[in-house]
Write a structure and sequence with these properties.
About 35% of the residues lie in helices and about 20% in strands. The protein has a five-stranded parallel β-sheet with strand order 3-2-1-4-5, with helices on both faces. The protein contains four helices and five strands, in the order βαβαβαβαβ. It has a single domain, classed as 3-Layer(aba) Sandwich (Rossmann fold).
Length: about 150
């Protein structure tokens, strides 16, 4: 089976605790299904960039990329991801659209029920769960905050 034929799970990561839990769940679940995992993040340039020329698009991308990579590394700590191909993709644009588009053809889309949009510059994942539940092209798994 080639990579393009291998079933995959998409997981949204914004650096919040719930998104880290969602990533870990997706990887553990992918092991059971012999699937690969696509970790997707999104970033956007705030409208105020045009008022403050000190920050350019490359700066926002760099900051978002560093935060995205740090979140992934944090989520992988102590996790046995043996046998799971993990891919990452940081997309410019809204998290809702990025996850919707990335989930085409996926076995499932895994997200935290509440994100932390302020963890990356320009990211707003708080309302993304609602959008994905209503519009995703595949089943959606919501990882809730632990009550224990």
């Amino acid at each position: 089976m080639t990579e393009t034929e291998t079933p995959f799970i998409v997981v949204g990561v914004d650096g919040s605790e719930q998104s880290i839990k969602a990533m870990r769940w997706a990887i553990e679940h992918a092991q059971l299904l012999d699937a690969r995992v696509r970790i997707v993040g999104a970033w956007d340039i705030p409208g105020t960039i045009y008022l403050t020329p000190s920050h350019v698009e490359a700066d926002y991308y760099r900051d978002a990329s560093q935060a995205f990579d740090a979140a992934i590394l944090e989520g992988l700590k102590g996790l046995d991801a043996h046998g799971v191909l993990v891919e990452k993709e940081l997309i410019e644009g809204s998290p809702s659209k990025a996850l919707h588009d990335a989930a085409r053809g996926a076995l499932s889309l895994v997200i935290g029920s509440h994100g932390r949009g302020s963890s990356f510059p320009g990211m707003h994942l708080g309302s993304t769960a609602s959008y994905c539940v209503n519009h995703a092209p595949c089943p959606v798994v919501l990882i809730r905050e632990s009550t224990t």
